[in-house]
Design brief:
By secondary structure, the protein is mainly alpha-helical. 50% of the residues lie in helices and 10% in strands. It has helices at 2-9, 43-62, 65-75, 84-95, 99-109, 116-124, 144-150, 172-175, 177-190, and strands spanning 18-23, 129-136, 160-165. Strands 1-2-3 form a 3-stranded parallel beta sheet, with helices on both faces. Helix 1 crosses helix 6.
Length: 193
């Protein structure tokens, strides 16, 4: 999400003032190498992958409440607070038609995407742009060490703010909605945008 946000923002003209909120930004992962597998480029392999393996298998997997419940338990700061309703909120959009092909296309195209550090630098150096970065202190996906590495050059930046949400994991906006909204609202009201 954060990578896509930064990529979209980079296409907006510099004279447009922006306020950007990044949550648990996964920007520090190494780039995937381009791989050429001759057999996988055959028409039969492409047809099989696109029409038989990818969408139906992925749709069956993510259409299960158990898939989301188990996955969310791994990334939430306090797994005991996860409810059936939380799992269903993630499950229902995944049942819609077409989303899975977008995810697969994004993953397949990752080796061709711009470098995340360069993208962050480009957006952070825009005039009239401010960025709020929020993370849960119990995030096991984007750890404090990763965040420190990604944002080392921005700790004293006047246009970037950092907020830790104690006890929360990778989805602080879902784990404690009201606290998240309060943090973002306070940030928006703290300066002119």
């Amino acid at each position: 999400g954060s990578f896509c946000t930064l990529q979209m923002v980079s296409s907006i003209p510099d004279d447009v003032p922006l306020s950007i909120v990044l949550v648990a930004p996964a920007l520090g992962f190494p780039r995937l190498p381009k791989m050429e597998v001759p057999l996988m480029n055959s028409d039969l392999a492409k047809f099989t992958t696109r029409n038989i393996i990818d969408p139906p298998s992925l749709r069956r997997l993510v259409g299960l409440k158990k898939f989301w419940k188990n996955g969310l338990r791994m990334v939430w700061g306090d797994r005991t607070k996860l409810t059936e309703s939380d799992a269903l909120r993630f499950q229902w959009p995944a049942i819609g038609h077409g989303w899975e092909q977008g995810i697969l296309n994004f993953v397949r195209n990752m080796p061709n995407l711009p470098d995340a550090a360069e993208l962050l630098q480009r957006v952070a150096s825009r005039p009239n742009t401010r960025i709020l970065v929020i993370r849960g202190t119990k995030d096991k996906v984007i750890t404090k060490g990763m965040m420190d590495s990604i944002f080392a050059d921005y700790q004293n930046s006047s246009n970037m703010s950092f907020v830790d949400m104690p006890g929360l994991g990778h989805d602080p906006f879902e784990e404690d909605v009201q606290s998240f909204v309060d943090i973002v609202a306070k940030w928006f009201s703290s300066k002119e945008t």
